[in-house]
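REQUEST FORM: STRUCTURE PREDICTION
Request ID: SP-0412
Submitted by: Lab K.M.
Chain count: 1
Length (residues): 314
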Amino acid sequence: MADVDIDLASFISDDSSFYGDDETKAKLEQQALEYDPAPYWAHHEHLLPVVAAKAKAKAQAQAQASSSPNPAEKSLYNLYEGKPCGRQLNESVEQFLKRLPPLTTKSSAAYPWIYIANPYATSRPTDSDQAGFMHDGEQLLEEFGEKKDEIETSMAGKAKSTITRKLTPLRKALEENLLVKAKEKGFTSGKWMLFPHSDDVNRLWGIVAEATVNRELGHAAKVAPDSGEGDQEPRLICVYTKDFSDVEDVKRVLGKMVDLGLVKKKKGSMGEERGIRYKADAFTELGIMSGNEWGLKPSLYGSNDLLGNGKKKK
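STATUS: Completed
RESULT:
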């Protein structure tokens, strides 16, 4: 069989029918021009591979811009970069809120909370020794529990108020020691807690998200997604500050929340308290909730106290 010379360059050139005839090529080119990718991303941008790809692209862009004279570009930091449950640096707050509306986003292993961070904050999670604090904190609770049992056993039959007076100084010392340990280990973050009704959670979360990114509140915030327990279930929104002992900063964030309409400054018409509470993450991680076995107050501050609407906490 004779050899046949084939000009491959001409065979697959732009003039070749490999791409279809002129009518087909014109039709495909028009479809490409008219294609709108927005609907596709609206349904797929929450997927982890997509979020990861966007995060990688953002990281590459930041690396290329590392020589930029603008210091703000170099200082951006996101606690939740690459995590689908958090806002990414390459998405606007509007895009983030549209992707993860708390009212309808279902709670799951991948979405236990919905997070947003202040990209200009200096707080870093690696600065704290949470494990070290937990070890020391649990030991302090255990020691108090043993003393409490001894006192209650030795004072069996006496009035409850008498036993309480005996335990009160020990409880105060326990609280102080726990907070000192948290400071020593750098585990100092805490949060103001809001409990909006589900039908208002999207609106209030939108206010918190915008203010967090705009550096008006603390270093981060989170909101509970839909747990599936009903639309009327109150949702928790946490507005974080970096140091529970920095009372001025805690008050500053509270004051801004008042300005934003997130917190009522005055009591109700019947004198009832309508404030919110501030809790140290150290207490949360130790499981110090309402009605805890140690008799500790779960929260450190109340908005009515710091705003001068209630009795000052001694």
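NOTES: The first helix runs from residue 8 to 11.
Reviewed by: T.R.
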